[in-house]
Design a protein that fits this description.
About 15% of the residues lie in helices and about 15% in strands. The protein has about 80 residues and is an alpha+beta fold. It has a domain of about 40 residues. Strands 1-2 form a two-stranded antiparallel ribbon. The chain is flat and about 65 Å long.
Amino acid sequence: MRKYDLVEVKERQLVEWTCSVCKMNLMQDELEAQEVFSFSQVGGYSSVFGDGAEIYIDICQHCMKERFGEYCTVI
């Protein structure tokens, strides 16, 4: 026999998305959102952020070009 009941399920939902540098609202412009550079990394044993630290950053294309453009290889 099976018995079912209704249960409330919570899910994570993106409610705000901004550039980590300039704070541009990336949810307002779909074209800008498509050009975001998103990086994530887990710190290793000798990480300056800490062993096992989770590091996340979202950078809009304008900040990426301004801050790191000279180091990028663009083909």
